[in-house]
Specification:
The structure is a homodimer. Helix content of chain A is 61%, strand content 12%. Chain A is mainly alpha-helical. The structure holds a DNA duplex.
DNA sequence: AAAAAATAGTTGACAGCGTCAATCTTTTTG
DNA sequence: CAAAAAGATTGACGCTGTCAACTATTTTTT
């Protein structure tokens, strides 16, 4: 790979991250959720008896950051915290009905963005793009944390 | 497209944005630059006599946000502001040597990330993935601003 | 079994960041 | 020339995550 291609790849990745992610500090991704809040909600949804810290792990936040984001979600009515029966140090975070609803119904923004993006790249076949996106997401999710 | 695929696509896009982007509020993307700062620097690099507001446009910041980020870059020694000869209202922002250097030498993190990502998706051909990434970035960059 | 260490979570102080609205300066318009 | 518009800046503000200290509970040591 030539130097030019390398820096182009960097720029492209940054471009993708920036446009797909929240803009500015108050960028909302859906309803009144920021992107980290959405990710937290999804983590809570997919983790049975999710401890507060697990939310932090999936966001790469410190444990106090985890507490704060969970508290924010609780204040917004999307989750509840319940002391674990097995270990009284642990708080199990659970989605409320409202949280489940917002999670299930807020793919709209990203789908729209996907459609706009696809519309701008007619030379690519949709199913190819979807394949690559799926593979990228899977690889990034499982990958070693970035230094 | 089925509902499941739609929500999968949303999750994937969020995953990609999150892992490629800065984590947490102080997420740095390279040296001591945040991702918006890097984008600003790149914009300044590619725009002759770049006015402060242009930086804001490319980041979708307000003009005061633009002032703030340019000031931050100036404080870090990456850019200089010079009053325009043609129009004294305008500040031309220019890269310093240090700014040019950081811009030229900080593709490493993203390249590493790209390589890690590629390594995690062996079923995809590298050139194919690069094609899709380029097309995605181009489409997102030119696309209509996201609501 | 008591003491020590580890673990989960919380909180106050703090700093970074972008917005808003007001303001200043310079340029353009009518 | 007066009024409006445009570029940039600034103070106040709110949101967000970190750090370090602290509480409470559980596990390990001895």
């Amino acid at each position: 790979m030539s130097g030019a291609v390398i820096s182009d790849i960097s720029r492209c990745l940054i471009e993708i991250a920036w446009h797909l992610g929240p803009k500015g500090i108050n960028g909302e991704c859906c309803e009144n959720l920021t992107m980290p809040e959405f990710i937290a909600l999804d983590k809570i949804f997919t983790t049975p008896n999710c401890p507060v810290q697990d939310v932090g792990y999936s966001l790469k936040f410190t444990k106090s950051g985890a507490t704060r984001i969970v508290n924010r979600l609780e204040k917004k009515g999307y989750v509840n915290k319940i002391r674990s029966m097995d270990d009284a140090r642990v708080c199990c975070v659970k989605l409320t009905k409202k949280g489940l609803r917002v999670l299930e119904s807020t793919d709209a923004r990203y789908l729209k963005q996907f459609e706009d993006m696809i519309a701008g790249m007619p030379e690519q076949s949709v199913s190819h793009v979807i394949q690559v996106i799926f593979a990228m997401a899977k690889s990034l999710k499982n990958g070693v944390p970035i230094v």
